[in-house]
Fold:
Amino acid sequence: MKEIITIVFRLTVTCLLAATVMGLCFILTSNAKKYNEHAKEQKVMYELLGYKGDVKVPDSVAIHEVYRYVISGNDKQSIGYLLPQGHGEHEGFLFVNIDLNGKMIESKPVELSEADSFEAESRDAAVQNTVGAAFSIRFADRIIVVTDDGTRIAYLIGGKFQGFKTFVNVMLAVDPDFTMVGFEVLEHEEDPGLGAEIEQDYFKNQFKGKPFEAIKSIDVVKAPIPSDYLAALNGKVSEEEVLAFREKYKSRAIYALTGATISTRAVANGVKGIVTKFAYRINVLDKVLQEQQLAVSF
Amino acid sequence: MANDKSSMQLISRGILSENPIFKLALSMCPAVGISTTVMNGFMLGVAVLFVQVFSSVTISIFKNVIHPRIRIPTYTLTIATWVTVIDLVLAAYMPEAYAKMGIFVKLIVAFAIITMRLEMFACKESINDSFWDGVGMGLGFMVGMMAIGFVRELLGSGMILGIDVLGFKPLLFFILPCAGFFVVALMMAFFNWIEIFYKRTKGLK
Structure:
């Protein structure tokens, strides 16, 4: 009996010690880690839009962040969007609450500065104030609308889906017709040499240029990539040829990674899910905005 | 330095006579699964090296206060703590390295080789020796992984370190996970054969 108590006590102390070390380390590094993740996200955003390396982003290109919230209360759920109405001097936010059938419940201005909107805490508080204490809110996701001189050129959508081991965190870029512009893997834990190949250009480029119709019925085929197509995917041929290949393969299935069919399927289905849901949501939102004549910045 | 000789001995023992992969046949899961390229082998080797050295030293420091009945949970906790700490520190202060190393570090927790070295060596020997043993075992693991990766990358995709050397792909089979078993087994046999041959010529045994 005495030994059991000693063992329990020692094991508890060991666990507590380990937890303390890990906790301290987490506290000390969390700020720097968040900053790095944010910096990476910014970089990925611009790279997806085609502003790589030294290419400067033109001034006419503007980025508008839309935050989606799930509002629940009174046994009902609705979707709330926090929409920017302007930037800089004209900053302001509009909160639009839409029920599950696509009908607008209410729209209200939100008191929130643009700088505060980037911080999850102050943003959540502002949304909570707007909907009132009777409802509970939950942040769902963020959509980024990119405009060039007032016309929309692309949407950037973040998303997570189940991979082979844990979640795969991605960012997708689609154009206003929901044709894939590209996607980037932000975080994953797939096996190196197998599922981790989802990070490689030759895999990601297979999705480039796929129209919405193809994305909706995307499939995975277990076959090696033809060598001429592989060269095009790796960017080893001229720009025109890459485009020709993209056109040729745009409605075909994705070639599975060698030894990682499950990871490939997960990515293909994940991309399909994210894009189709997004297309539905943005259409509903646009319809509401048009019907109600609400002015937003994009 | 008084320990110079023994530290060199400990390192060479980890790489040659007690190589974790070819001699001790431990941690075969990563050896089979990950070693598709030389670079992957190197990355995992570096990650294991750091975790092994830190864990060995930690256990060696606390060897007198660890209750013998709970030593295995303690080892696992130590390894898990170091893996988490390295993961967090890399993510925070070396984002470039983390982008490459992150997935390898997260794999480590349950590696047999690390637990085994803690059980066989670090919980009995001095801190200094444990450190060098950790370095030796980590390097041995890295060398083994790179050797397997070399064979598989060359035969599977015709490349070395991502550079096309053959210009064609001899056997795609070598990239697949099952080929890991064949390569590990054949290389194990090869190294044993060299050792036996070497001992015979030296007239030992």
